[in-house]
C-alpha cells in the first residue's frame, strides 16, 4: 500500500465521524455540542486527506487486485463522497430535501451504511501492520498536523459562511435550521418511523402512572393541569428546530401524585403506539407533560392529548400521545440509544 499513513489517518477520521455523528444525533443539550464540533472538524480533515491523495486513489483503481477489495474501495469512495457532499451542502447552502427525506437525513443514512464497509476496509488494509507503526513519532506528528489543518479549514468555512450571508451561518449547534418558532401548532410535523395513531378521544384517554410507586393512579385529561409553562426548543434529527411556549403539568408533579419509592432510578414515558423513552429521575423532574403549545391545544399530529417536553433532548425523545408513565428501579441506560419501534 502506498502512503499507508495517509490511509491510516483517513480511516481514523472516518471512525471519528461515525462516533461523533452518532453522539451528535442523540445529543440535544448545548453542553454536548462538542460532538458536532468534532464531527465538522473531522469532515474537513477528510477533505484535506482526499485532496492530497486523490491521484493515488485514482491510480489504485487500475491496480490488479482481487474483486472484493476493489469493489469495496469503489463503493466506499462513492458513498464517502456522497455523504461529504450532502453534509457540506446542508452546512452552507441550507436545508434541502429530496426523495421524501432531508439532505441531513440522507447524510446520516449513507454514513450509517458505510459502517460495515469501513470496518472491513480498515481490517483489510491495516492487517499485518507492526505495533511500532501505530506508536511511531511521525504518525503522531502527522495526526497533530492534520488536526491543525482541519481546525483551520473549519474556521475558514464558518467565517466564509457568515461573511457571505449563507444560510448555514444561522444553523443551530446541532446543524438544524429554524422552522415555525412561536407559531402554535404550525411548526413541522414529524414522527420517528412515521408513527401515526388514530385520533384519541379524551373521554376514554387515561394517563396511567405505575411501577415502583406507592400509589398507582390513572389521571383523566381534566386532571392534567396547564399551570406550568416552559419555553423550549424541539430539535428534530430531520434537520429543523422550533422554539415554542409549552404549557402543561410538570412531570415532577405527575410523579408526586403516585409517590415513587426510595429506590426509583428512572422513568419510562410510553405512547399509545408502544413507543417509549427512559429518563433518569433527575431528568424527568425537569420536564413537563404538555397539553398546549402557544395558546393552542396540541393538535393530533403534535401529540394530543399530551406529549413530553424534554427540553435538553432531541425531538425523538419528546414522546407524543402519552398513555403510560412507569417508574423503574433500574437506570435509564437499559434501552436502545435510538428507538427501534
Write a concise synopsis of the structure shown.
The chain has 341 residues and is of the alpha+beta class.
Polypeptide structure, described:
By secondary structure, the protein is an alpha+beta fold. The protein has two domains: 4-175, Fumarate Reductase Cytochrome B subunit, CATH 1.20.950; 179-328, Sulfite Oxidase, Chain A, domain 2 (Alpha-Beta Complex). It has helices at 4-26, 34-60, 67-92, 103-126, 131-134, 137-163, 251-258, 281-284; strands at 97-98, 101-102, 177-178, 207-211, 217-219, 228-235, 240-250, 266-271, 276-280, 288-293, 296-297, 307-309, 322-328. Helix 1 (4-26) runs antiparallel to helix 2 (34-60), helix 1 (4-26) runs antiparallel to helix 4 (103-126) and helix 2 (34-60) packs across helix 6. The radius of gyration is 24 Å and the shape is elongated.
Termini separation comes to 44 Å
Can you tell me the residue ranges where pLDDT is under 50 for at least 5 consecutive residues? none
Query: Total strand count, please?
Result: 13
Specify the number of helices: 8
Structural class: alpha+beta
